[in-house]
Amino acid sequence: FGTEFFASNFWMYWRTMFAFEEWHSALEMKLYVHRFIHHIGGMPDFANVRFFKYNQYESMVLPLYRWLLDQGVTFQFDTEVTDIDFAITADQKQATAIHWIREGVVGGVELGENDLVLATIGSLTENSDNGDQHTAAKLDEGPAPAWDLWRRLAAKDPSFGHPDVFGAHIQESKWQSATVTTLDARIPAYIEKIAKRSPFGGKTVTGGIV
């Protein structure tokens, strides 16, 4: 894209909604456009922003957690996955073991050929912190378990990716919400419009409406 595109209102809304930077992957941009292009019409006034009746935890996470418990799923909290072993051949990569630290104790589990492993690596919200109207959130540069895990996996085989392309340049990759930082004088009116539709009576927090 050229300089005109990066100066457009579209790019301002797009990058602040999805945390895109100019140097990010063109493939990622394509995937997001395919997924969300039908919402473009509602971007100027945030008409397509969806609000839950309660917060995201009580509306989505907690019901799903309880449903999975009823299905016999076992959850293990307070656990940091430190590494995953693989048997790597020209044809496949088979996870053979997971290593973790739980409450200061090193542990893990051996895996069979029919086991599936879904791992969170390089989380966008890794090391996030809380702020309020009077105190800025602190920048926590590490350690970052999800990124550290990705780096260990990437060292095993190049096809696992290149985490430092995305996670080693904190100052260059910071982003902020359009509702906080935009200079567009129309944004406050949009926020007020959304607040009137909110079931919470327009209560606001840093970065948006709840």
Report on the structure:
- The chain has 210 residues and is an alpha+beta fold.
- It contains 9 helices and 5 strands, in the order ααααβββαααααββ.
- It has helices at 3-6, 9-18, 26-36, 56-70, 145-156, 163-167, 170-173, 178-181, 187-197, and strands at 79-88, 93-102, 105-110, 204-205, 208-209.
- The strands form 2 sheets. Strands 1-2-3 form a 3-stranded antiparallel β-sheet.
- The relative contact order is 0.12.
- The model is unreliable at 199-210 (pLDDT under 50).
List the helices and strands and how they pair.
Layout: H1 3-6, H2 9-18, H3 26-36, H4 56-70, E1 79-88, E2 93-102, E3 105-110, H5 145-156, H6 163-167, H7 170-173, H8 178-181, H9 187-197, E4 204-205, E5 208-209
Antiparallel strand pairs: 1-2, 2-3, 4-5
Main attributes of the structure:
two-stranded antiparallel sheet; three-stranded antiparallel beta sheet; globular; 210 residues; alpha+beta; disordered C terminus
In short, what is this structure?
The chain is an alpha+beta fold and 210 residues long. 36% of the residues lie in helices and 14% in strands. The strands form 2 sheets. A 3-stranded antiparallel sheet has the order 1-2-3.
By helix and strand content, what is the structural category?
A: alpha+beta
Number of strands: 5
Order of SSEs, N→C? HHHHEEEHHHHHEE
Average residue pLDDT = 80
The separation of the N and C termini measures: 34 Å
Summarize the biggest pleated sheet: 3 strands, antiparallel
Give the strand content.
5-15%
C-alpha Rg (nearest Å): 21 Å
Q: Tell me roughly what share of residues is in helical segments.
A: 25-40%
Number of helices: 9
Gross morphology = globular
**Which runs of at least 5 residues are low in confidence (pLDDT < 50)?**
199-210
- For the largest sheet, list the strands in their spatial order: 1-2-3
